[in-house]
Specification:
Layout (H helix, E strand, L loop, with lengths): L10 H14 L3 E2 L5 E3 L2 H8 L1 H22 L17
Antiparallel strand pairs: 1-2
């Protein structure tokens, strides 16, 4: 029995995911609409809950990560190790 996959995002996020999927789909479908083979993205969407949740998480956190990466705010400088002088 196949495990069911649930979408935990919004309807807008689902539509955007489906648009991205349609641009990258490589399923083989006959003229009658019979699917002969399933592409990896469709396979993932139908069977891998962890991957779906990960995509949603990454999509939601991406803007924050970009702003933190490129902000010139008052973030603390990266610590650099001191090199001991040898004599």
């Amino acid at each position: 029995m196949a495990a069911s996959v649930l979408w935990h995002g919004t309807q807008t996020e689902a539509l955007e995911l489906l648009q991205a999927l349609s641009r990258n789909c490589s399923c083989v479908v006959t003229a009658e609409g019979v699917r002969l083979s399933t592409c990896p993205p469709h396979e993932m969407l139908s069977s891998d809950q962890r991957a779906i949740d990960g995509l949603l998480f990454a999509r939601r956190i991406a803007a924050r990560l970009r702003s933190e990466e490129f902000s010139s705010g008052s973030s603390s400088p990266v610590a650099t190790p001191e090199v001991a002088a040898t004599s």
